[in-house]
Amino acid sequence: MSSGESLTHVFERTLDAVVHDPAFADVEIVLHGAHVRRGTTALSVTIDKVGGVDVATCEAIASRINDALDAFEERYSLEVESAGLERPLVKPADYTRFAGKKVRVVTTLTINGAKTHRGTLVGLRGENVVVATESGELPLPIATIKSANLEYDPRADLTRDKRERKNHGRTGS
Question: Do the domain assignments include residue 38?
Answer without folding.
Answer: yes
